[in-house]
Amino acid sequence: MRREIPLLITFIVGMALLVAIFIPAEPFPELDSEFSVWFDIIAVFAFFLGAGNLIAVHTDKITRNHQDKFFSMVTLFGFLFTLVVGVFKVGGAPGLQGNYIAEGTWFKLIYDSVFTPLSSTMFSLLAFFVASASYRAFRAKTREATILLVAAFIILVGRTPLGYYLTFWLPEPLQFLHIPTLSAWILSFPNLAGQRAIMIGIALGIISTSLKLILGVERSYLGHEK
Amino acid sequence: MATQEKLPLFERMLKIDRRVIFVLIALAVIVPMMLKLVFVVRPSPVVQAIFDKVESLPEGSRVLLSYDYGPATVPENQPMADALVRHCLHLNHKVYIIAVWATGEAQANQTIQNVIIPEFPAKRYGEDYVQLGYKAGNQGLINAIYTDLKGMFTTDAAGVDVNSIPMMSPVTGLKDFGLILSVASGKPGLKEWVQFAGDRGNIPVSGGVTAVEAPLLYPYYPRQLLGLMGGLQGAAEYEAALVTKYPQFKETSLTAVKSMGPQTIAHFVIIFFVIIGNVAFFVQKKRDKLNRSK
Predict the structure, then answer these.
(1) B29 and B57 share one domain
(2) Does A120 or A225 have the greater pLDDT score?
(3) Is B219 on the interface with A (CB under 8 A)?
(4) Contact between chains at B219 and A199 (C-beta distance less than 8 A)
(5) Quick one: which of A31, B81, B111, B267 has the fewest CB in 10 Å?
């Protein structure tokens, strides 16, 4: 029964959601809406699962005296401190309905003073690595690499006002060589064709996997049988 | 070091220390910021389409704005959201703010604190704009609020019952909105709003995403996505469109336009290094060929 019930739930929910798309008559839209609400409730429990996993992994590293145990200590301290401050709304209005991120709460202070600068720093580092990687990787070694290089060059210039300044003087018959126009063309045609091909491929894969799940052919999500 | 000095120029050009690149990129960002270097930005058709849609909505239209990003992408996303809110409130549209990302709520608060309260003091919370906050569920949430928004958002971000908020009374689901805007930097984001709300209910969807994500959304433009702001350039273009039509926002709504100076110079530095690398590569290749033929 441990396997049959989840399989049955998957089949019923999957079929109901599938049918709801093609038959927009009651009770299917209502079912669709209800299942979405259930999904949202279940999604909240994923946080508990994620938190439990985080605590387990890092506690294990600390108890095993792993070489990165200090990072794990910082992670656990940061997690637990933020959790307590957020749940109990330290510094803010009391009560379950109080806004945990209101002005004056410790949670907001942590968010603004720790999380925001750390996130911004991590993302900003990309600029340095992108520059270094572009210099090393963008070499016209083959025909394909040359096409990639030229496209990257046009997009890089075209996505800044530099593109306009470099080519605004072009006469009317040569306007198609205007860098922002070329940049837009690359995004709207070759990029679009490639993206659509990838998306259709992914969609077919998702359809195939979903059908396998709904029909119970794919059962790995249930775990191993004892 | 001594070995490197003996290397020919073109070989040295092929092996530039990454720290040199890092320093030049840092200077490319810092110097234009200090010099307040500003370039003229012109709206592209893909951005102008969003501006025109907001303009064409009847006064008092309901606009849903979803903050689907976090602090990491604030320089790109925040100016987009701020400009959209500024534009909507100026035209007296009703702005409903939600977040599908946990970090989005704090970013929305920044818009309220930095844009709505100081620039639109006459606008009343609950009558002209509302902050509904974040709810978990990703695309499942979008699917659920399509038919029953108040079922998922029972209170606003501050914990006030939505039934006591005047501008919430005519709202049932997403079909009650004249426009859905998402400012996003990943999944769930603009793509999910197109798939789970726009396509399903034929609701106009638009918004902005980070520069790296923009190419992934072009397949939806212009039928499913009526316009798109891509990265800082997209934000700057929207600001430019806004300031051109409403010059009173010239002092407040040019954050992205001002940031385009450092970005332009940084792009220029990257291009410079790519050119150097390729010139050196071809010279080296030619030399190797000559050496082999001798």
Answers:
(1) no
(2) A120
(3) yes
(4) yes
(5) A31
Chain A within 8 Å of B105 (Cβ-Cβ)? yes
pLDDT at residue A32 in the model: 81
- Judge whether B277 is closer than 8 Å to chain A, CB to CB: yes
pLDDT of B2 reads 47
SS3 assignment for chain A? CCCHHHHHHHHHHHHHHHHHHHCCCCCHHHHHHHHHHHHHHHHHHHHHHHHHHHHHHHHHHHHCCCCCHHHHHHHHHHHHHHHHHHHCCCCCCCCCCCCCCCCCCHHHHHHHHHHHHHHHHHHHHHHHHHHHHHHHHCCCCCHHHHHHHHHHHHHHHHCCHHHHHHHCCCCHHHHHHCHHHHHHHHHHCHHHHHHHHHHHHHHHHHHHHHHHHHCCCCCHHHCCCC
Nearest CA distance, A174 vs chain B (angstrom): 19
Contacts of A199 in chain B (CB under 8 A): 219
Q: Which ranges of chain B have pLDDT less than 50?
A: 1-2
Residues of chain A positioned with their CB less than 8 A from the CB of B216: 195
User: What are the tens digits of pLDDT across the range B220-240?
Assistant: 998 999 999 999 999 999 999
The pLDDT of residue A96 is 66
Contacts of B45 in chain A (CB under 8 A): 184
Quote the number of domains for chain B: 2
Minimal Cα–Cα distance from B59 to chain A, Å? 31
CA geometry: angle B206, B209, B213, nearest 5 deg: 120
Are A74 and A91 in contact, with CB atoms under 8 Å apart? Answer: no
> Hunting for tokens 């029964």 — which residue is that?
A1
pLDDT of residue A163: 86
The string of pLDDT tens digits covering residues B61-90 is 999 999 999 999 999 999 999 999 999 999
Q: What is the CATH number of the domain that holds B177?
A: 3.40.50.10160
| B134 and B239 inside one domain | yes
